[in-house]
Amino acid sequence: MSIEVRIPAPLRKVTNGADKVNVEAGNLAAVIEALNDAYPGIKDRLCDESGALRNFVNVYINGEDIRFLDGLDTLTKSGDEISIVPAVAGGY
Asked: Which of 29, 36, 61, 89 qualifies as a cystine partner to 72, CB 3.0-4.6 A?
């Protein structure tokens, strides 16, 4: 088994339309690297120049917000489900 990553609609052009992809990695940072290996350029959309997640990108592992876990160092294991959720803002 591997880790399932749910891809939001705005990033699907990078994943050739795939809404879910599978990777194998030991932590979230390695998941992002594996995604970038398979889909070049996706890391630039998720992370800033220093390698930190961009402010408007929310990531959940098995429904838990990584900001309340160990951020990019959060450990991952086979069977985990990762959701990438772009922040939504608005108003009138």
From this structure: 29
What's the DSSP call for residue 27? B
Kindly list the structural domains of the chain, giving each domain's residue range(s) and its CATH number in brackets, ordered by start.
3-86 (3.10.20.30)
Beta strand segments in 1-92, E: 3-6, 20-23, 57-61, 64-65, 81-86
Find tokens 């429904």 and name the residue: 63
Tens-digit pLDDT profile for residues 38-84: 999 999 999 999 999 999 999 999 999 999 999 999 999 999 999 99
Q: Among 77, 80, 59, which Cα is nearest to 69's? A: 59
Helix, strand, or coil here: 44?
helix
Length of the chain: 92
